[in-house]
Amino acid sequence: MIRRTIQALLCAGAVAGQLAPASTARTVDIDIDATSAEGRISPLLYGQFIEFMFEGVKYGLHAEVLRDRGFEDAASQAGLSPSWKRYPDDREDDYALSARRDDEMAYPDTQRSDGTTGGHSLCVDLKQGVVERHGVYQARVPIRQGIEYRGYLWMKTRTFAGAVTIALEADIDGGRVYDETRIAKADGDWTKYTFTLTPGASDPLARFAILVDGQGTLWIDQVSLIPGDAVDDVRADVLEKVKALHPAFIRWPGGNVAQDYRWQWGVGPRDARPTWINLSWRNELEPGDFGTNEFIRFARNAGAEPSITVNVEGRGATADEAAAWVEYCNGSPSSKYGSLRARDGHPEPYRVKYWEIGNEIWGDWVRGHSDASTYARNLGKYVAAMRAVDPSIEVIAVGDNDMAWNRTVIQRAGVPLDYLAIHHYYGRRDMQDDLTKLVARPLHYEQFYAEVAALFGELPADRRPKLAINEWGLDLPESQQYSILAALYAARLMNVFERRNDLVAMSAVSDLVNGWPGGIIQAGRQGVFVTPIYLVNRLYASRLGVERLKTSVDSPVDAVASRSKDGRQIFLKAVNTDLEHPLTVRIRVNGAELSSTAEIERVTADSVTAVNGFATPEAVRTTRESVPAGRDFSLDLPRHSVAVVTLTVVR
Q1: What's residue 97's pLDDT?
Q2: Beta-carbon neighbour count of residue 374 at 10 Å?
Q3: Rounded distance, CA 562 to CA 553, Å?
Q4: Which of 228, 256, 257, 406 is the most buried (most CB within 10 A)?
Q5: Exposed, middle or buried: residue 452 (CB in 10 Å: 0-12, 13-18, 19+)?
Q6: Which of 110-119, 141-150, 454-463, 553-562 has the lowest mean pLDDT?
Q7: Backbone angles phi, psi at 637, to 5 degrees
Q8: How far apart are CA 557 and CA 414, in angstroms?
C-alpha cells in the first residue's frame, strides 16, 4: 500500500475527511450560526470510569498506604509476605522472635470460597533473647510532615506478656524515628487497637514498624494506616484531580472485573470483608476495602452520579443477585437488603439511577461470555428482576462495534433499554506507526454512529436508546500516550461525541486512575501527574454547552460549537490536527452580539515528543488568556494543539 504523507491526512476536513494540500491550510474560517441550534447535548456526556485493575483502586484511589494489610499474600520461606520484613533486618539470628503467616487464625474468621483467599494473620512467637527492638516492618511507606496518620490493628494473644510499639522511621540502619506510639497491654481475644502518628518530617520511603516487647504468642491482622487529609478514605490529591474533571457520572466496578465481581464482597464492616482474586488482571489480590458504600460516597464527593455494572452470569452470578444489589442501594431500610445498607451506616436509600447489565460479554476474555441471542435473553431476565425492585432505574445494555451483535440485542431484548454501551479502543497495532491513522480515527467512529442511528431508527420513537461510549482509550507507548498526540485524538473524538448529540449521551475515557498507561490520572505512592487526555477531558467537561450550534469549518481544524443553558456563553472547541504548522483562524458568529474579549484555553506542547510524567508534569499543559473578540475576529492555534474559546453574549 502506498502510504499518504502525514501532512496530507492531517489536513483532512473535520467532517468530510477530504484531503487538502498543506500549503492551502495556513488560514482557516469557522462560521458559527447562533440562530440555528442543532439539538441538545446530554448533561451526562462526560463521565469517568474506574476499575479494579492493578493499583487503580488500591493505592491509586484508596488512601490506605499499607500493602497486604491482611497478610493474604503468599509467604516466603521466611514466613512473611513480600510486603513485610523482619525488623530491624536479617543480619543476625534473632532467635527470640519467629513470625509466620497463619492459615488457621484470622480476623475475621472468613472461610475460603470461590474467588476469595480465606483469612490469614501474622503469628509472632516471642521468647527471651538479645535483640531488644524487634518485630516486623513495611518499607517504602510515604509520609508527610505534620499530617496525622490514623491507624489501627487487630491483635489476639496467647500467654503474651508485654507491649507493642507502632513506629514510623527512616528506612536506614539506626535511622530517625519520626513518631511512635505504645500499646502498653495487648491481651485476650481479637481486639482493635487504634493509634495516631504525626511524623516530624516528610519521607517518601519511610518504614512502618510493629515492634514487640515481651514473651508469648500474639496474632496481628487487618493493619491500617490512612493519612488524615483523606476524604472518606480516598486520597486527597487524587480526589482533587477527579473533581476538577466535573464528571457527570462514574462507572464501577468494571470493565472486565464486573464479570468477576460479587457485590457481597464489598459490604459490611471493612475489616470483615474478604480479599478476592481478580481473575481479569493476573489474579491480583484485591482487598474488600473499597466496596459499594465507598464507591457511592466517592462518586458523590466528586459531584458525580454512580453508575454500577452488574455481573451477568459470571462466576455464578444470577439475576436475583443483581436485583439484590439494586435493593441494597435503593431499597427501603425495612427491605431485606436495604436493611443491610442501613446496618452499614446509610439508612437513606442511595437512589442509584444508572445500572449497566454486564460488560463486553461478546468477548471470550470475560466470565459469562455468550453470543448475542443468549445475552439478549439474559438481559431481559436481569432487567425485569432489577426493575421489579426499582422501576425508576435506567439500564445500559452491552453493545459492540459489530452491528450484527447490536441488531440482535436491540431486537430480542424484549425490554425497554435506555442506553447501549459501545467501547472504542485504538492503539499501536491498528496504527502501525502511522500518525495519520491516529488523528483520523475519530472520523471513522463518526461514520459508524450513522449505522447505529439507522438501527435505532427502526424502533418506535419512545423505545430508542442512546449511546454510552463508557470506555474509550488509546493503547500507545508512553512516549505517545503521554504526549500531545493523545490529546489530539481525544479532543477530536469528543468533538464527534458533541456533533452526534442526537445519539451519544454518555462517555467515559478508560481509565480514571492508573490501571494501565491509559489511566488519565497517574497516581504513584508519592504524587500524581495528569495525562494530556485528562487535560482535554477536563477542559471539555467544564465547557459543556446544552445546545449545539450550526458550525462550518475549513480543514485541518476540527471544530464544534455550543452554548450554555442561560445563553450567555458560546463555547467553540477547535483542534489543530496539523503537526507542523500553526494556524490563523478567522471566527465569524451570526445572530449574537458578543463581548469585545474572549477567553481561550489551549492544550499545547512544544513538540510531539514532549511527554508528561512525574518529573515533567507540564510538558503538555493548559494555558489561558484573554483575546480581542467580537462577531468577526481572528486568533492563533499553535501546531498540534487543542483550544476552547469562550465567547460572552451581550445580547
Answers
A1: 94
A2: 15
A3: 14
A4: 257
A5: buried
A6: 110-119
A7: -115, 110
A8: 43
Instruction: List the Cα angle 483/486/488 in 5-degree steps.
Output: 110
Reported as a pLDDT band with limits 50, 70 and 90, residue 365 is very high
List of residues 6+ apart from 567 with CB closer than 8 A: 649
Give the number of C-alpha atoms closer than 13 A to the C-alpha of residue 253, restricted to the C-beta side: 28
Q: What single-letter amino acid sits at 593?
A: E
* 43 neighbors 501 (Cβ within 8 angstroms): no
Query: Helix, strand, or coil here: 572?
Result: strand
Considering the entire predicted model, what is its pTM?
Answer: 0.94
Reading the block at residue 612, the C-alpha cell is: 508528561
Rounded CA gap, 310 and 329, in Å? Answer: 13
User: HSE-up of 188 (CA within 13 Å, CB side)?
Assistant: 4
Secondary structure element (H or E) that encloses residue 47, with its range: strand 46-49
Assign 316 to helix, strand or coil: helix
* pLDDT score of 279 more than 90: yes
Cα–Cα distance, 377 to 373 (Å, whole number): 6
> What SS3 state is found at 389?
helix
pLDDT band at 112; cut points 50, 70, 90: confident
- Contacts (Cβ under 8 Å, ≥6 apart) of 238: 60, 61, 513, 521, 523, 528
Q: Strands 466-475, 419-427: parallel, antiparallel or unpaired by DSSP? A: parallel
CA dist., res. 401 & res. 472, Å (int)? 12
Return d(Cα 212, Cα 128) in angstroms, integer.
12
Q: What angle (nearest 5°) sits at the alpha carbon of residue 200, between those of residues 197 and 204?
A: 85
Other CB atoms within 10 A of residue 82 CB: 11
All 3 cell numbers of residue 316?
455464578
Residue of 64, 286, 356, 471 marked catalytic: 471
pLDDT tens column, 575-604? 999 999 999 999 999 999 999 999 999 999
Question: Which is nearest to 152 in space by CA: 70, 223, 232?
Answer: 223
Q: Specify whether the CB–CB gap between 269 and 324 falls below 8 A.
A: no
356: annotated active-site residue: no
Backbone angles phi, psi at 436, to 5 degrees: -60, -40
Which one of the listed residues 360, 446, 547, 601 is annotated catalytic?
Answer: 360
Cell 499543559 appears where? Answer: 621
Express each pLDDT in 304-354 by its tens digit.
999 999 999 999 999 999 999 999 999 999 999 999 999 999 999 999 999
Torsion sign across C-alpha atoms 600, 601, 603, 604: positive
Task: Say whether 593 is catalytic.
Answer: no
Residues 381/393, Cβ–Cβ less than 8 Å: no
Query: Distance between CA 401 and CA 20 in Å, rounded?
Result: 30
Using only the alpha carbons of the chain, give its radius of gyration.
Answer: 28
Residues 452, 453, 459, 461, CA torsion sign: positive
Look at 109-118, 252-261, 569-578 and tell me which has the smallest mean pLDDT: 109-118
Give one word for 488, left, alpha or beta, with left for phi > 0 and alpha for psi -120 to 50.
alpha
Helix (H) or strand (E) holding 545: none
Mean per-residue pLDDT, 440-460: 96
- Mean pLDDT value across the chain: 93
